[in-house]
Structure formats: C-alpha cells, structure tokens
Automatic annotation (TrEMBL):
This is DUF993 family protein. InterPro entries: Aldolase_TIM, DUF993. It comes from the Bacteria. It holds the Pfam family DUF993.
Length: 396
C-alpha cells in the first residue's frame, strides 16, 4: 500500500493494482478512424538551463516515445501544444523536433503531422509578417514530408482586425501548400491569448468564418482539429464540413462519444490524452474496426475521468500530468520538463492522476510506478509507508 494526499492535505491508504493491462505492439494498422496522438517532449535533466531559456531536449528518449506510439498503430501529431509549443519549446526547438521526428517517421513508416505556427515572432507584427512566419514554418514541415497542421496563431489573434484578415492569411497559405493541411482551432481554455479567434468572440460567428475558409479551399484541407471542449458544437461543425474534409476531435472531455459518432458521421482524433492512453486507445479503435462500438466504449469510457482530471482548469497545464504519467510508466527516467513546467500541478493533483492511471492499468510495471510515486511523495516530505510497509527501492 501507499499513502496518497488528497486536496485537503489528508493522507489515505491506496492499494495499487498488481498487474497491468497488456497491449501488444505491432498489431495491424487502424482502419476505421485516423488517430493521432499529440506527443510530449522529454527534457534533458542534466542541462544547465533556465525556465526562460532555450529548451534542452533529450532527443533519443523523445524519439523513443514516438516509436512507442507508432508501434501501436497511432499517428504522431508533432510540435503541438502537448509538446509545450510556446510554453517552453520555442520555434528553434520545434523546428529541430520536426526534422528529427520527420526522419524517424520515414525510417519506421510512421504516420506524422506537424504543427505550423508563428511563434518565431516575438513582438507586435503586421499581417504580412504573420503570413511570412507561417510560410517559413510551412516550408520546414513540407521538407520533412509530414502533413502540416496550421495551428492557431497568437500573433494573428493580436493583429487581425476582423474575419477578413483571417480569410486573407489562411487563404494565401492554403493556396500555396503542397499537400492538404489540417486546420487547428484551439480554444482559449488551452491558450488565453487565442480568445476571439477567427475574428469574433461569438462562437457562432467564428464558426461561420472558419467554415468559409474551409469551403473556399476544400481541396486543400485534409481536416480540421477542434479543441473547444464542447461536444455539441463539434458535432454541429462536423455536419457542416464539405465532403471529404475530416473532423479530428481535440476534445479531451468527450472523445469516446465523438469518435464513436452517430448515424450522421463521426470524428477522427488528434488528442493530447492519447499520449498516456496510446496503447489502450489503439486497442479501442481496433475494437471499433471489428464493428463493436459497444466494446469500443467499454474500453475508452473509463478513461474519461483521468482525462478530465489532467485537463481541468487551468487546462494549459495538462502537459504536467502527461509527462508525470510518462515517467511513472517508464518512458523516461525523470520528472523534469522544459520550462520547469513540472511545478505547474500540485502534489494532490499528481497523486490523483497516479491513482486513476493505475486503476486503468496504464503502467507496464505497476511496482515501478508505485516506487516512483513514493519517491515523489518523499521529496515533498510525505512518508508514503502504510503500517510499516517498506516502500523503498525501485524495480528495474
């Protein structure tokens, strides 16, 4: 057993599960849905860096995690919000990540899409400068052969005077893209600087502008990623998309029902929560491939409490929980993040994340996860032992 703190500071005993749920890599490709996991980056814990300095990335471990996702049949959405883009990872680091992951994807035959933004801009910018920044990043992604994801731009949100400016910038980018792109609508709950995107704080008007861009360039749009945490709005948008344009859900609160879909359609997926859920998510989609929607929901519905916990407000700090679970699961040897963002969530929050993930069987070695959780508790001054049970040591 192990003692875990709750939100009041009280300690209670928790009995970890003894065995993990095993998901075998190397299974057949996913067929019924296109599924991307937005993947985190692994920091170099030995770098002499500061939170406001350039990101120090452990490249080998970062790429190994991508190989883990590909081995289960998932695509990788690279250099996105989950990779701390604009929150510890600057454009120089993101460009290096895109190049390295693009080469790795070619080597293993992995599906990859990469974020295109404007985060090299450091101050007020004109529309021409925003467009040029997008074009610079688009060229880097296209050179790797990855599918571009046109991410929402803080600079464009600050510069645009109205919907017409979004129509102009996005229209120009789509006309010159070599391959169809994914358009990304990231809500202000993920990034407060993106409030009023598409030229209006009214979501109905913003949706109309978004759809106008898509309809004018439907042959240049593979799909749209919607991250508004509003299932009803996503379904309504999905039903208005031109034929052939996919809807990739980015809703980390309602993804099972959105991916399962209804009689009028379904969402594919591009999700940060599929970083810790990768193997389980892939197994769920394979169940859907076998025409078993009830089995799909039976696998994925129980994961929603963990996702809602990790993505609770302030939602932008969900990355801390994602990296924490990667450490507990053994995908990296430390709980250090670029920008020092490991400090963004409280000990009770992390303890609850451990409990929920353990209950789902997400840890390949539950004893290692328990030992690492105990070590984190000890660093915070908590004696994790229960009634003299020895909690020291860590399994290899």
């Amino acid at each position: 057993m192990i003692r875990l703190p709750d939100a009041t500071g009280a300690l209670r005993a928790y009995v970890p599960r003894a065995e993990p749920t095993t998901f075998t890599p190397g299974r057949p490709p996913l067929r019924s849905r296109v599924v991307y996991s937005a993947a985190h980056v692994v920091a170099d814990p030995f770098a002499d860096s500061t939170p406001d300095g350039p990101a120090a990335v452990d490249w080998e471990t970062t790429l190994a995690f991508r190989r883990h996702l590909w081995s289960h049949g998932l695509g990788v959405a690279e250099a996105m919000d989950t990779a701390q883009r604009g929150m510890g990872l600057d454009w120089a680091g993101a460009a290096e990540l895109i190049r390295r992951s693009g080469a790795e994807a070619k080597a293993v035959g992995g599906l990859i899409a990469c974020g295109v933004g404007t985060d090299q801009l450091t101050g007020p910018a004109t529309l021409a400068e925003v467009r040029a920044a997008y074009e610079e990043q688009l060229a880097v992604v296209e050179e790797t052969g990855a599918r571009p994801i046109l991410m929402a731009s803080r600079a464009l949100a600050a510069t645009a005077a109205g919907p017409e400016d979004y129509l102009e910038v996005y229209g120009a980018l789509l006309r010159q893209s070599a391959e169809p792109v994914i358009l990304h609508w990231l809500g202000p709950m993920f990034d407060p600087a993106l409030g009023g995107y598409w030229g209006s704080g009214d979501l109905d008007r913003a949706t109309d502008t978004f759809l106008a861009i898509i309809e004018a360039n439907a042959d240049r749009v593979d799909g749209v990623k919607v991250s508004l945490l509003d299932a009803g709005r996503e379904v309504a948008l999905r039903r208005r998309l031109p034929a052939g344009v996919r809807c990739y859900t980015g809703d980390d609160f309602h993804y099972p029902e959105l991916i399962a879909g209804d009689e009028q359609g379904y969402s594919d997926a591009l999700l940060g929560i599929f970083d810790p859920l990768g193997p389980l998510a892939a197994e769920a989609v394979r169940t859907l491939d076998a025409d078993d929607p009830a089995g799909f929901r039976a696998l994925l519905d129980p994961t929603v409490p963990l996702s809602r916990h990790l993505f609770r407000a302030p939602t932008r700090y969900y990355k801390t929980g994602v990296v924490f679970l990667a450490w507990l699961a053994g995908h990296q040897d430390h709980f250090t993040m670029v920008g020092g963002v490991q400090s963004a969530r409280s000990l009770p929050h992390l303890a609850r994340a451990y409990e929920l993930a353990d209950g789902l069987g997400l840890f390949p070695d539950p004893e290692r996860a328990r030992a690492r959780m105990a070590r984190l508790l000890a660093v915070h001054g908590v004696d994790p032992a229960v009634h003299g049970v020895d909690q020291e040591g860590e399994t290899a």
